[in-house]
Automatic annotation (TrEMBL):
It is an enzyme of class 1 (oxidoreductase). Gene3D superfamilies: Dihydrodipicolinate Reductase, domain 2, NAD(P)-binding Rossmann-like Domain. Its EC number is 1.2.1.38. The lineage of its organism: Eukaryota, Viridiplantae, Streptophyta, Embryophyta, Tracheophyta. This is Probable N-acetyl-gamma-glutamyl-phosphate reductase, chloroplastic.
Amino acid sequence: MLKTTPKVGLPQLRVRASVASSPQKQYSPKTAEVKSGEEVHIAVLGANGYTGAEIVRLLANHPQFRIKVMTADRKAGEQFGSVFPHLITQDLPNLVAIKDADFSNVDAVFCCLPHGTTQEIIKGLRKQLKIVDLSADFRLRDINEYAEWYGHSHRAPELQQEAVYGLTEVLQGEIRNARLVANPGCYPTSIQLPLVPLIKAKLIKLSNIIIDAKSGVSGAGRGAKEANLYTEIAEGIHAYGIKGHRHVPEIEQGLSEVAESKVTISFTPNLICMKRGMQSTMFVEMAPGVTVSDLYQHLKSTYEGEEFVKLLHGSSVPHTRHVVGSNYCFMNVFEDRIPGRAIIISAIDNLVKGASGQAVQNLNLMMGLPENTGLQYQPLFP
């Protein structure tokens, strides 16, 4: 279980939000589909973390999203380029504390804040704003389950009822009509994209689903942690969260909903000494009479029209190095040496498709734009 994260500037935020929505302000947020060439004004909360910086990098190539507000309490008053020199060429506002943020000229918000801090902050924002939350605060629909896994009660249960889970390729229709989207976690994205269609089609059994997943160190966030020091993680692989990683209920929630029955998984995450990237290997038992070819063909037909989910050909194995820096998810299906079982492997960049890229993809849909807008970055290789 995670420890409860202290609240950050919440009373001041509510005051500022009420001022921002006062009658003196004439700006009206865009709540309908935006027109071609029309600017959408963006706020990035928690811009000094990895996912916040990745949002900024991706939006540098977006033709319509323009960043107007950036918050970072510990870096308030600094220029963004001084915190992230690789983005010094971007014309961006200075970082401010959340309590000083002015949302009066904003259409949409990316919340890149630590788990446990987002709920009350979002409650203080104007109801017209479109919000994509990259924390875990709104992913679990059952607030009692949230309290069990995150160690404190949910502080915005009324917003939880409104939140739409943002697994883009699976829930496009719901996302288009949403005001608040809970962006999925990186592990759940890499796992649900292959498994959801197969479970929905009843091609695999609901029992004995075993998942071995590996992530780059950026998945642990930018905060200083002893366990993530170079000398602690170099030249090794580190299993963690073995008995109960916080992404387990999120994964089981998605699989159980399409199965219309409780699905329980065996899941072990591992930390790899690399900056970014994620590979999930899933071991499944096929339904009677189903072959590996059936699994492959169903995934192929499911994602044939999707730009960012690609089923590889033949015996090609998805590798993290082939998706780095991109919003793609590569996957493939293999026959296990144990009769009746199959092995599915998927690879994503944990900071892009596993976080900020999917968040931009979701906001594109929410604003009535093509979901690939500003996201056609090709993978970096080598």
